[in-house]
Design goal:
By secondary structure, this protein is α/β, with parallel strands linked by helices. It has four helices and five strands. It has one domain (3-118): Response regulator (Rossmann fold, 3-Layer(aba) Sandwich). It has a five-stranded parallel β-sheet, with helices on both faces.
């Protein structure tokens, strides 16, 4: 089953993105986490089933969102990774992201737009 990662530490924002994904296509598995460490643990070393990763900048745990994006690329994931954080991404880490879409005032609308763009 194809999987979408939503890695966002603020639960309400995380839920908006998960709702948008469910609205698009309910047969995607959603890996909803709040840290790099939890995401990597749940992936169990495999990115073959990933369809999309939506990642915040500041996360719980010891890593930032761009560290997760880098790890996913190192694991061989070549699909889209969308950065939704408002923290500036270091210049040497921008290469790991497909798109930058910082959270704005209409988070649900933004979440739906990202889901529609990448999950058609």
């Amino acid at each position: 089953m194809e999987t979408v990662i939503v890695c966002e530490d603020y639960i309400h924002i995380n839920n908006f993105y998960c709702m948008a994904i469910k609205k698009m296509k309910t047969d995607y598995a959603i890996l909803s986490t709040d840290s790099t460490e939890k995401t990597l643990e749940q992936l169990a070393g495999s990115v073959d089933h990933l369809k999309l990763a939506i990642i915040d900048g500041k996360l719980n745990g010891t890593s930032m969102g761009w560290d997760l994006a880098e790890k996913l690329r190192e694991m061989g994931y070549q699909g889209p990774i969308v950065y939704i954080g408002t923290t500036e991404v270091p210049a040497d880490k921008k290469q790991f992201f497909t798109e930058f879409d910082p959270k704005g005032p209409n988070i649900l609308g933004q979440a739906i737009n990202i889901a529609e763009k990448y999950l058609k």
